[in-house]
Amino acid sequence: MTVISSHKDTAALTLTIVAEYGAAPDRVWRVWEDPRKLERWWGPPTWPATFEQHDFKVGGRAAYFMTGPDGTKAHGWWQITAIDAPNRLEFDDGFADDRGEPTSEIPPIHCTVTLEPHGGGTRMTTVSSFAGVEHLEKMIEMGMEEGMKLAEGQIDALLAED
Fold it and tell me: Is residue 22 a contact partner of residue 159, using CB atoms and an 8 Å limit?
């Protein structure tokens, strides 16, 4: 598995996932930039994603849904807040209703993704920041940590195709 660590920090209100890949940062960057690649790993294997919109620029928006084993669809959105290709991506990630409109029941998560050369490949660090301890604990309870580890574990197969 490519995920080498995960760490929940209730003082900093963050969840950090670190993964390493045997490809250069520009190739790993493409799994975020290309919506067809992104939907092959965003979400755990049993909840594949479909990106209906992916405006990959600062201020751009992504709209997606993940489909569960029973056909249930969970909608989400991104608002991209920073891009420094191929090194850094930041976005807000939230839940949406069936029409793709953001919901307010659960606050969005701010995600910061850093790609850096490491040992001939890439180290990818994903830091998810939460609105409060309750928000962090609720997302962990909903399976976010395990889901992200499973999702990021699918990236190696995509990199092997290029």
Answer: yes
Sign for the pseudo-dihedral over CA of 66, 53, 102, 110: positive
Q: Give me the count of residues in the chain.
A: 162
CB of 127 within 8 A of CB of 16? yes
Tens digits of residue pLDDT in 100-131: 899 989 999 999 999 999 999 999 999 999 99
Distances (CA, A) of 5 to 71, 88, 93, 113, 145: 31, 19, 22, 15, 11
Residue 13, Ramachandran bin (φ over 0: left; ψ between -120 and 50: alpha; else beta)? left
Q: What is the pLDDT of residues 21-72, one digit of tens each?
A: 999 999 999 999 999 999 999 999 999 999 999 999 999 999 999 999 999 9
State both tokens at 69: 């084993």
8-state DSSP, 9: E
